[in-house]
Amino acid sequence: MRTSAIHHAVKIVCLFLLCPLVSVVPTAANSGDGEFQLLKLDGYKVKWGDTELGTGAVVSYAFAHAPQHFNDARNCRELVPMDDLAQRSGISQAALRKETAAAFRVWEDAANITFVPAENPDQADILIGAQGRPVGRAFANVVYKTGSSNGVKVIDQALVCLNPEQPWKVGFDGNTDVYDIRYTLIHEIGHAIGLDHPGPSGQVMSFKYTERYQDLQAGDLRGVELLYGVSIRRLAAGDGPQ
Ligand SMILES: [Zn+2]
């Protein structure tokens, strides 16, 4: 586990529909179809890699393999393995891993950010688990390193936690009372890489759960491009930055 000494500050972000900690007023420049909001912690933008906007990063991830306590975390303070959550919702471990990998791939396909399984889960950049103290639906917790440049800080670690007492599903079925685990993870990973809510709806990073679209929307793409640059795949497809 990482020491907390370098955890200079902690804050977090949300879950769908219950995001009292984050107030976002989209600016005129961010309004419309291309709406996005960069996560700001203590006034700083945050990203993985280095502080220069538009530069890529390699980020490791793992599932919590044992209960872990994060004293300084505002969300996800108690993180436990996902087994119980998956079992309660009738989701196999294989399906859970497949959905999680797919969620990371969505961001990887869009921007110059690469996710790799952590060799040592205790050293994972992004740690995913179920909440030891269930609340809400899903949260992310983002911690940044000391130092900054041009108002940007580098993320040190992010936690993503889901409520094991809520029902979860794989795939959309029109019932928005039960959240699709992949869509939820895409949204929370968005927080874990530096994006906030642009508003209630219209983007994957919007704070209302929806089953109207499964892919990143124009604003999600603009936001993640601004942070990491466009992915090689999208550049090759001629789908460059606007
Ligand atoms: Zn959120």
Care to describe what's here?
It is a single chain. The chain has one domain: Collagenase (Catalytic Domain), CATH 3.40.390. Helix 2 (93-110) packs across helix 3 (181-192). The chain has helices at residues 83-88, 93-110, 181-192, 218-228, 232-236; strands spanning 9-13, 37-38, 40-41, 44-47, 57-63, 68-69, 78-80, 113-117, 126-131, 138-144, 152-162, 168-169, 179-180, 195-196. The protein starts with 8 loop residues before the first strand and ends in a 6-residue tail after the last helix. By secondary structure, the chain is of the alpha/beta class. The radius of gyration is 16 Å and the shape is globular. The strands form three sheets. Strands 1, 3, 4, 5, 6, 7, 8, 9, 10 and 11 form a ten-stranded mixed sheet that branches. Strands 2-14 form a two-stranded antiparallel ribbon. The structure holds zinc ion. Zinc ion (ZN) is lined by residues 13-15, 19, 187, 191, 197, 207.
**What overall geometry do the principal axes of the alpha carbons give?**
globular
Which ligands, by name, code or SMILES, are bound? zinc ion
By CATH's scheme, which homologous superfamily applies?
Answer: Collagenase (Catalytic Domain)
Structural class: alpha/beta
Find the CATH topology: Collagenase (Catalytic Domain)
Roughly what fraction of the amino acids lie in strands?
15-25%
Count the E strands: 14
Give the mean pLDDT: 88
How would you describe this structure in keywords?
Collagenase (Catalytic Domain); globular; disordered N terminus; about 240 residues; 14 strands; binds zinc ion; alpha/beta; two-stranded antiparallel ribbon; ten-stranded mixed sheet
